[in-house]
Design goal:
BirA Bifunctional Protein, domain 2; 8 helices; alpha+beta
Length: about 250
């Protein structure tokens, strides 16, 4: 599968990226090559899942940062120079569009594991059984309150086939399906910025303190793993080498 249509890295307002992803998906037609769209946001902003309410945010912090709404699920993602995003548009009938929605993530997560290995980072995909067990924390009395708070941030939890170092997420995934095809999205943490998220998502000093400590245990940036700043272009080259060789 080397016939990818690859768009160069685009740095723009996050709303531009949201609308361009929608346009790429709407234009997909059977037989078209799949599309890779790399992006980073400028300025820094916070993206909420389509069902996430503004009430999950600290009302005193709303004026400090642009707020966007994506059309996929999940919870808040801080976008900016610390996050490299990839949208993959697969037209209907493409072999990677599987009937099983969860299994449709598998190739994407595995490709990211292989790309990170090229950078010297040994990561893993999260098996669906493990992801299901982790979601059970929301139902346990002793963990439900803390878990619900940490899950206000997308990188505060792990889902099937996302990419992690141990229990710490480094690549988050989501998906949208339409009649014309599928849109898979990945966000790679070049740097894990927890202070801003704690301020935005914590309503009280106690919640913010818990978020600062808890989010550090739930995710990790590539710069921390590699002991240096990692350029987006370096990650892009590694991922494209993987999928264009398959």
């Amino acid at each position: 599968m080397s016939n990818w249509h690859i768009l160069p890295l685009t740095i723009a307002d996050q709303q531009y990226h949201i609308e361009r992803s929608e346009a790429l998906l709407a234009a997909a037609a059977p037989g078209d090559p799949p599309v890779l769209y790399w992006s980073m946001a400028d300025p820094v902003g916070l993206v909420l899942g389509f069902s996430q309410k503004l009430g999950t945010l600290n009302p005193r912090a709303l004026a400090a940062i642009p707020i966007y709404h994506r059309r996929a699920g999940g919870t808040a993602v801080l976008v900016g120079p610390q996050l490299l995003s990839l949208d993959v548009v697969l037209p209907a009938e493409h072999p990677l569009v599987l009937p099983d929605v969860v299994e449709s993530y598998r190739w994407f997560g595995e490709a990211w594991v292989a790309a990170l290995a090229q950078l010297g980072v040994q990561a893993r995909t999260v098996p669906p059984v493990e992801a299901h067990e982790l979601r059970a924390r929301l139902k346990r009395e002793e963990t439900s309150e803390c878990e619900a708070l940490l899950r206000r941030a997308c990188y505060g939890s792990l889902s099937s086939y996302e990419v992690a170092i141990g229990q710490r997420k480094i690549v988050g995934l989501d998906m949208r399906r339409r009649r014309m095809g599928s849109l898979l999205q990945a966000g790679v943490l070049l740097h894990w910025e927890t202070e801003t998220l704690a301020h935005l998502l914590g309503h009280t000093p106690a919640e913010q303190a818990l978020l600062r400590a808890g989010l550090l245990e739930r995710a990790i940036g590539l710069d921390t793993l590699m002991g240096r700043r990692v350029a987006a272009e370096e990650v892009i080259r590694a991922f494209e080498r993987v999928i264009c060789s398959e």
